[in-house]
Amino acid sequence: MTAPQFTTVDIKAPAEHVWAILLDVEGWPEWTHSMSRVVREGRGEFGVGSRARVTQPRIGTATWEVTDLEPGHEYSWESRRPGITTSAHHTVTPHTGGCSVRLEVRQRGPLAFLVGPLTAGLTRRFILAEAQGLKQVSERHDA
Predict the structure, then answer these.
(1) In whole angstroms, what is the distance from residue 5 CA to residue 71 CA?
(2) How confident is the model at residue 87 (pLDDT cuts 50, 70, 90)?
(3) Rounded to an integer, what distance in angstroms lies between the CA atom of residue 129 and that of residue 103?
(4) What span, in angstroms and rounded, lies between the C-alpha atoms of 68 and 115?
């Protein structure tokens, strides 16, 4: 497993509001340049087993599946490719005046030691773009 890439951002909006934006994965391309297209497979409530095809610049398209979800607080999903599994974790923690969000990406598998360092810079830029975009869209809609 490679060292996780992560960031935490404080958002001046209710945790419930931010959580709803995070769960609307098809809307992510509207507020972050790290994803150009997200299409959920199937309908219904977003939860464990939900899948989406995510297209990202310089990465391509991969299917992500929700592996863990604690309503209102956190969810994780992962994408598998030969030799490497990438997992992304999203955690919302309420506090006075809003909430904080931690976004984290980890890679594991036999090729993680090779792919991780090669993609670390891009992964870090994407995580920062997602955090900043989430902050902007959450605070704008909350105003």
Answers:
(1) 23
(2) very high
(3) 11
(4) 24
Residue spans of the domains in the chain: they are 5-142
Per residue in 36-67, pLDDT (tens digit) is 999 999 888 999 999 999 999 999 999 999 99
Confidence grade of residue 141 (pLDDT, cut at 50, 70, 90)? low
Which CATH architecture fits 5-142? Answer: 2-Layer Sandwich (3.30)
Query: The tokens of 105 are what?
Result: 């990406």
Q: H or E element: which one contains 5?
A: strand 5-11
User: Encoding tokens for residue 138?
Assistant: 């959450």
Token pair of 63, please? Answer: 């299917």
What span, in angstroms and rounded, lies between the C-alpha atoms of 13 and 27?
Answer: 18
